[in-house]
Amino acid sequence: VDFQHPERACYIFGPENGTLSEATLKRCEHVLKIPVSLPLNLAATVNVVLYDRMLKMRRPDLRPGGNNPRTTR
Description:
- It is a single chain.
- With 73 residues, the chain is mainly α.
- The chain has one domain (1-63).
- The protein has helices spanning 22-27, 42-57.
């Protein structure tokens, strides 16, 4: 995927049974669609987008096993 996530972003995900309203879409700078043959549920969609963001932002502290202060004891 060629999408470059902005450093500061707010992600709005649509409902599982529909789409975002036209008014909401007009306020968005980017609209992402994940090309899949079967629909993804909301949790799976959020995981795909945020995992892609983490990899592309190259934040090793947010990777599993990374030195994330929120998870380190």
